Amino acid sequence: MKRPFVTLKFARTLDGYIATKTGDSRWISGPESRRYAHKLRSRHDAVLVGVNTVLKDDPRLDVRLVKGKNPLKVIVDSKLRTPLTARVIRIRPKLTILAMTKKASLKKVRQFEKLGIQVLVVPADRSGKVDLKRLFPKLREIGIKKLMVEGGSRILTSFVNQGLADRVVIFISPKILGTGIESLNRTKWKSATARKITQPEVFRLGEDLVLEGKPLD
Known about the structure:
The protein is α/β, with parallel strands linked by helices. The protein has helices at residues 31-42, 51-57, 87-90, 106-114, 132-141, 153-161, and strands at 5-12, 17-19, 46-50, 72-76, 96-100, 118-121, 146-151, 167-172, 181-182, 196-205, 208-216.
């Protein structure tokens, strides 16, 4: 199966949370890390998030803090819950790709297509969600060779559980939330079979630590 090279990128606190219980994830990482994250975006053909990230954070998913090319924006949205008012829709809509299943409303599909947004119909997996492995060939067909996955927790966990990540970039902030949304949840491994990061590189950006490496199957 031809598929893009996949980088998982997320920022987390010292105690492993990517957001508060209410879903607020702003300013977990510092300004130096945010600039580096934008640099990474500019080096990828597309960035991918799940619809829950769109609903909670209303991200732009573009490059602003450094000079560089804006990537395509892939939203995994099985039932097309993305609002027409979302910033990924209003700002550069022709760079947005929505990945849905047959459950989505055809009326809403037409509304998105009128804005120049590409809508991909992808078979569902056993849980009724977009089958990520079936999505990959469609992304390659439209020229996406390097894909960066930015969240949220469900999407990150799905990629890890299915062994679909080729590289990880984790920003570790010196903050402690105590409770919140975990970066990864419902992973299938126990301590003895935990997935490792090989060839790890660790460096500092401002107050944050950055861990980059390759997940070992």
